[in-house]
Backbone:
């Protein structure tokens, strides 16, 4: 006899979020996934009451380094996070019910301070989470490993895969 959990797993579809992109889902039978987060940050947004999920894969801390240029908002934390929040609210999420989890920000190669993009991304996310009053419930950041994350839109759980280790849930 199949369990409810098994039946749900069989019906799940996967939506891939690329680098410098985001996706929103109102379908509880969806996984939002992004692969191989290194210095980039993967941030999940989830409204449990309405089962609305979002995933942002941001590369860099701030669009202000590119004044006057046309930018891809999801590439930057300071423009991508508000974009995801707005999109979620447009489809019915309530800002006060959205919980965030943040992943990535690794330092995969030894470099000088100028190129420490992972730690700069973490610093910017910390500042933005305070400025925007984000409810951040999980941090899986820093280190020297890449991470693949998968947001289960029926539960809000994030399944994390690190090379050579078993998956775990955040």
Residues:
């Amino acid at each position: 006899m199949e369990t409810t959990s098994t039946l749900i797993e069989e019906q799940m579809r996967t939506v891939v979020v690329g680098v410098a992109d985001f996706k929103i889902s109102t379908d509880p039978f969806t996984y939002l996934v992004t692969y191989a987060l290194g210095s980039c940050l993967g941030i999940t947004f989830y409204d449990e009451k309405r089962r609305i999920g979002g995933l942002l894969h941001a590369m860099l801390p701030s669009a202000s380094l590119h004044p006057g240029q046309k930018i891809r908002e999801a590439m930057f934390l300071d423009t991508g996070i508000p974009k995801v929040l707005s999109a979620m609210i447009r489809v019915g999420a309530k800002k006060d019910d959205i919980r965030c989890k943040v992943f990535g920000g690794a330092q995969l190669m030894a470099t000088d301070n100028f190129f420490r993009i992972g730690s700069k991304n973490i610093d910017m996310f910390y500042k933005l989470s305070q400025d925007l009053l984000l409810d951040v419930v999980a941090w899986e950041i820093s280190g020297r490993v890449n991470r693949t994350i998968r947001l289960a839109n029926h539960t809000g759980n994030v399944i994390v895969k690190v090379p050579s280790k078993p998956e775990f849930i955040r």
In short: The helical segments are 4-11, 77-90, 117-131.
